[in-house]
Write a structure and sequence with these properties.
Rossmann fold; Arc Repressor Mutant, subunit A; two-stranded antiparallel sheet; homodimer; 6-stranded parallel sheet; alpha/beta; DNA-binding
Chain lengths: 215, 215
Amino acid sequence: MKTSKSSVTRLYSYREALLRLKYLGFVKVFSENMADAIGATAVQVRKDFSLFGLVGNKRGGYQIDELIQKLDALLGKDKKYPVIVVGSGNIGRALMNYKGFLASDLHIAAAFDTDEQKVNRSAEVPTLPFGELKDFIKKNKIKVGILAVPELVAQQVLDQMMAAGIKGVLNFAPVRLNTPEKFVVHNVNLGRELETILYFVNAWDRQEQHETHKA
Amino acid sequence: MKTSKSSVTRLYSYREALLRLKYLGFVKVFSENMADAIGATAVQVRKDFSLFGLVGNKRGGYQIDELIQKLDALLGKDKKYPVIVVGSGNIGRALMNYKGFLASDLHIAAAFDTDEQKVNRSAEVPTLPFGELKDFIKKNKIKVGILAVPELVAQQVLDQMMAAGIKGVLNFAPVRLNTPEKFVVHNVNLGRELETILYFVNAWDRQEQHETHKA
DNA sequence: TAGATTGTTAATCGATTAACAATC
DNA sequence: TAGATTGTTAATCGATTAACAATC
C-alpha cells in the first residue's frame, strides 16, 4: 500500500518540521534530523521519502528548499481549500473559530445550522440556514466537511452532504456512518478517547497496587 | 499484546451496542450481531472476547446482561471519573459543555485558565485560575486531563499537570509532547486530520481526471 | 581511500482474517 | 444426529524495523 493514512500524515509532519528548520536558517537535513523532529526513526523517514519519490544525496542529506517544494506539490499545498462545518453546537462553533487552521491550506468557508437563531451572515465565518447547504456546496465546489451534528441526525445530514458533492468528512458524532466506497470518513470520538486513556491509566494503577501488596 | 489501544476501544463499542440491544429487549446476541453493530467481523468479536476472557455458549451466543456486567468490571464502569480541562479557548470551552460525556463514566470537574477574566466559580463546570491547578488535581485525585492550551505553552503546562499527579492527557495542541514511560497521551490534531482527508479526496479527483483523459 | 549517509531488499512484529476443531 | 456457533490455532497482511549494498 503506497499511501497509507499514516504515511500521508507523516508527510505533513515532515513538511511542518522542514518549515521550522528553514526558518531557523538551515539549508539541508539528514534523515536523522527529520526523525528527531517528528518522533520517528531515520529508517522510517527514508522509507517514507522513497515511497513518495523524494530523493536526497548520498552522504549529503536533503536540500530543505527542494524537499519543501516537492512536498508542496505532493500534498497540494498550492491552493486554499474551503471546508464547511455542519452543526454549530459546542464543537461546531469551536471549529469555526479555531486558529489552528490558519497556518494550513484549509479555511472554514461557512457553518450551517437548522436553528434560525444561529444564522449570522455577516460574521467572519458566516452561519447559514441548513436549507442553503446543498446550493452552497455545489456553488463553491466544497469537497470536505466537518460533521458536528447530534448523533441521531448524523446519517441523514451526511446523506444530504454527499448528494451535494461532499467527498470526505471529519465526523464528531459518535456513530458509524454509512458511506460509499470512494468516500473518506475520519471519526473523532472524544468520549471514547478519554475512556481509553482512563482505561490504561487505571490498569497501571491496579497493577501498581497489586505489586505493592506483593512487596 | 493483550490489550492494544484498538481492542480496548472496541470493548467500549461492544458495551455501547449491548446497552442498545438490551434496551430494545434482546436477551442474547451472537458474535455476528455484535460485529454488525460495531462494523467489525464476527471473528474479530470472538477474538476480542477470548482475549479478555469473555465467554459465551457454544451454539447459544452470549447473554447480554452477563456480558455487560463483565465489561463493566473490565472497563471500570462502576464509578465516575473526574477529568479536567486545561485552557478555555475555543476547544476547551466546547469540551466543558460537551454533552457526549454525560452517557459515559467521566465528567468534567473543572476547567483552568490563566486569564482571570474567564474565571467563573459558580458555573456548572467552574473555570478556575491556573494557579489553583496543582492543588485541585491533588485534592481531587484527578488522573486524566484535556490539554487545550496554545502550542507554545503545551509542554510546560503538561509538566505542571504531571508534577501534580496527572497520568494521561488528551492533547489538542499540535506538538509532540515529552512524557515519561508510564504516561498516556492521545493526540487529536484537527488540522492534520482535515489535511489528510483532503489529500485522499484530491488524490481520487486527480485520478478520475486522469482516467477521463485517457478515455 | 575511509567514512557517512542514502535507499532498497529482507526480516520482524502486531493485528486481522481464515481455517477448523470442539461442543451444545 | 445434524447444524450452528464458539473459541483457538495457523495463515495472511500491512507496517515498521533491521541489514546491507550503493555511492558521494
